[in-house]
Amino acid sequence: MKQLIFSLLLICSVLTVNAQADFSPSSSFKVEIGLPNNATNYAFRDLMQGLVIVTPSYQYTFENSFSLGAGLRYGFFNVNEFKNNIGMSGGAHIAGVFGKIGQEKYYGNFGLDYGVRIGYTMNIFDTNKNNDLLGKPYINDGGFVEPTLGLSLMGNENTSFRLALGYAFHAFQFKPHQMGVDNFSGIDNDRLESITSYFTIGFGYSYYFGKK
Asked: Shortest CA distance to 122 belongs to which of 148, 149, 141, 150?
């Protein structure tokens, strides 16, 4: 991962040779792809492996650098088959929509894009245990809040590449019944009371439709 980050930043720094020195973004299409790392909620951290978070969005930045955006969000967490002794397999799909408020500003070829995403997701727990018990995945829903930070480098006058960081807080507690079982072996109930959260690190791309 560290080598990949270094390589991307090196490529972006080379691309900035042709980039415009003073850039004021306007409307843009953005997409981010990241790797989620489970944080709070012991069971979620222990039993689930974050595989991917994909976030396409549209953002408009005003002349004072204040920005508003909206987009889609999809994440997949796989059941860690080596961390359970009941033959559980499958995963959790977390898909939803969000709005974003923040600020996007460039200092020469380097840009900062930070803010907060506030959204709503459908959480689809598609495991073999749910298929046996319910004949279908278990589904619930809930809101989420995600502070984000993007460190961007211009590629040319219309594009930029970024290191994308985020920390998502979801309004659901990870419980055994969501996975189709009565309990999580070896995990006490008092360790299941935390909300579900995870840290995401990834890469992003922005295409700007105009500048100020």
From this structure: 141
